[in-house]
Amino acid sequence: MFAVFVILPQFCLILLGYLLTKRPSFAKKDFWSVTEKLVFYVLFPPLIFLSVAKANLQIGQCSYFLLISISAMSIAVITAWLANFLIKGTSAQKVGDML
Predict the structure, then answer these.
(1) What pLDDT tens digit does each residue of the chain (99 aa) get?
(2) What whole-number distance in Å separates Cα of residue 64 and Cα of residue 50?
(3) Please, what is the Cα angle at 39 between 38 and 43, to 5 degrees?
């Protein structure tokens, strides 16, 4: 039940944002594009940094998380490299047909 109370405020904020975008008298599209850029590029990175800096992490947890992260990134890089290698000689139309 604790998880519900932790997640509920985020869903309420998302719902509020959705409802505000549907109300044209609140703000125009230009406002939302500027706000989105401000949040994602200016406000969100320091929030993530501070959250990680203040977190009470133990060495065992960090090493496991680091191992999973490096493995996932390695798999993504190898998959992208293989896709580039396999698609390199094909035309754009054939690539679209494969997808």
Answers:
(1) 777 888 898 999 989 988 887 877 777 778 878 888 998 899 999 998 998 888 887 877 788 888 999 999 999 999 988 888 787 755 555 555 555
(2) 21
(3) 95
